[in-house]
Design brief:
14 helices; four-stranded mixed beta sheet; Aspartate Aminotransferase, domain 2; binds pyridoxal-5'-phosphate
Amino acid sequence: MTELDTNDGRGQGSVASGSAWLDRYAGAMIGVYGTPQRVLVRGEGCYVWDSDGRRYLDLLGGIATNALGHAHPTLVASVTEQLSTLGHVSNFFATPPQIGLAERLLSLLDAPEGSRVFFANSGGEANEAAFKMARRTGRPRILALEGAFHGRSMGALAMTHKAAYREPFAPLPGGVEHLPFGDLAALEAAVDDSVAALVLEPIQGEAGVLPLPEGYLGRARELTAAHGALLVVDEVQTGMGRTGAWFAHRRHDIVPDVVTLAKGLGGGLPVGAAVALGERAAQLLGPGQHGTTFGGNPVSTAAALATIHVIERDDLLANVREVGARLRADVLATRHPLLAGVQGEGLLLGIRLARPLAAHAARAALDAGFIVNAVNPGTLRLAPPLLLTGDQAATFSAALPALLDAAEAASAQQEAG
Ligand code: PLP
């Protein structure tokens, strides 16, 4: 066995430094993610440790995914018990956690009579299912918004807006139009009886944590209902408690036709869902028209049930509201000249900078032991575990002025050099 051999069945192997791991990463992985910032080896609660033994406060949570942080005992116990009992079956068979999770989601969504769930393994796949539902209406047009991110598989990518993600893969499935973000007049003009579906994120996460303007979702519901078009709400990033409510759209008092979920749903295990609300949406995909081997597998659905259980038991929705509000207020109270504002809801926050220094700021944060994400050149995104404590959040807001100073210094040095 060489010093760097990982063939110990756990992918861990013997101790190697971060730079040795990164060399091996570059030699073995297709480079779609660029160079990883660190090699992480362990997590506990809201902290992770890298291969050089350094600890970080994880304010990104696997991009809005590790709802219960890392190695949560209830999640570990539930997954371990399920894997020790029944780990995988095909969709020729049903399992109790799969059925139980479908029922829990319908109940959390106050789903009307006739509603049904399709399980996938990711957000892109959940949206792919919604895309197919839209096609089954027989109508030609699907509306999405500029700035939208709905995933990278071809149907989801067709609904995603960013040219750099789309253009290398043309032609994409047709019929998708992107409307200007938050523009009600454009929406009113676009929705007619030829529209199969309008697909929206309540807060555009990947575009920079941009909430839809007040009233937009409500009007979108009225217009789609009046014209018999589906309203698909992509809650992959905003759902499962992230904003302090189970689902971000609930605050807008609407009932969509389809809600898509993933990320936080499994607390870190891969599971996605397309929930069809009401009989019409639920009947769009018939026997044999869609499927996936791992969708609704017992381990991932048990993980999701455990995640929902802990969110309820520990009142984490209230924690998200309280800690999120405090974090927002503390960040604003720094009054740093580089700070332009904070947007978002609950524990999905975008710290807007007055200049495009987010990448520098994220690097400074990492060096100081905080994981955040430069979601666009001018915005830092925070999407930590839902159980982040006020004290943990306060360590970040206390450090923020120095991080922003460091970002400015790094940028000045770059310009000078
Ligand atoms: N939809 C939204 C709103 C997302 O934020 C994402 C991922 O960031 C996706 C869909 C795609 O999810 P996945 O990466 O699990 O395919």
